[in-house]
Write a structure and sequence with these properties.
heterodimer, A: 117 residues, mainly beta, 6-stranded mixed beta sheet, 4-stranded antiparallel beta sheet, 50% strand, B: 115 residues, 7-stranded mixed beta sheet
């Protein structure tokens, strides 16, 4: 079974600074997909960024980027120029995807990020 | 991105009654839908996976007779909490998966309070 670990329950950073959230996972499969989701106080799950394991290039979405280390099974999220609206719970998630007939998402326990004005 | 709606967004019911939560994919066909439960300050816990026209597959420890899931069409899944009790109070989230895709699209969630 796949597992996802987020070792930072809470983090806080000053506005405009850079913050990195860590995530490690465990799987014996070679092809899979990784995600970072944001859950603000509204509790709507919002996709921040995705990474396909077969792609070596790290995914980026504006101020958000990942450091994907496949051999180390690490998938950290970097938020640059942090903004007050980034305050939220962040979940790392893993799926084998449809190719394996198992589309379930495995979530980490989450990191509560607070951006300080 | 694709849009998933849930109704109602918040429901209060009395202990012993049943409540139904609807999950709709508005602009795509969801061949698979998922139901999650989330307690305050915790992660999402998968309750069940449902494929259109098939019986739902429940995760270990989830009572299938208590949490009835129906996925009658490619755009609608329902979760019925039967004989609800205060311990069933929680935040319920659904998501949909389009055919051939691997990314789940989440609904806004439903807050259930059982008094």
């Amino acid at each position: 079974a796949q597992t996802v670990t987020q070792s930072q329950p809470e983090m806080s950073v000053q506005e405009a600074e850079t913050v990195t959230l860590s995530c490690t996972y465990d799987t014996s499969e070679n092809n899979y997909y990784l995600f970072w989701y944001k859950q603000p106080p509204s509790r709507q799950m919002i996709l921040v960024i995705r990474q396909e394991a077969y792609k070596q290039q790290n995914a980026t979405e504006n101020r958000f980027s990942v450091n994907f280390q496949k051999a180390a099974k690490s998938f950290s999220l970097k938020i640059s120029d942090s903004q007050l609206g980034d305050t939220a719970m962040y979940f790392c998630a893993f799926t084998l995807g449809r190719d394996f007939g198992n589309e379930k998402l495995t979530f980490g326990t989450g990191t509560r990020l607070t951006i300080i004005p | 991105g694709a849009v998933v709606s849930q109704h109602p967004s918040w429901v209060i019911c009395k202990s012993g009654t049943s409540v139904k939560i609807e999950c709709r994919s508005l602009d795509f066909q969801a061949t698979t839908m998922f139901w999650y439960r989330q307690f305050p300050k915790q992660s999402l816990m998968l309750m069940a996976t449902s494929n259109e026209g098939s019986k739902a597959t429940y995760e270990q420890g989830v009572e299938k007779d208590k949490f009835l899931i129906n996925h009658a069409s490619l755009t609608l899944s329902t979760l019925t909490v039967t004989s609800a009790h205060p311990e069933d109070s929680s935040f319920y989230i659904c998501s949909g998966l389009a055919g051939g895709g691997y990314e789940q699209y989440f609904g806004p969630g439903t807050r259930l309070t059982v008094t």
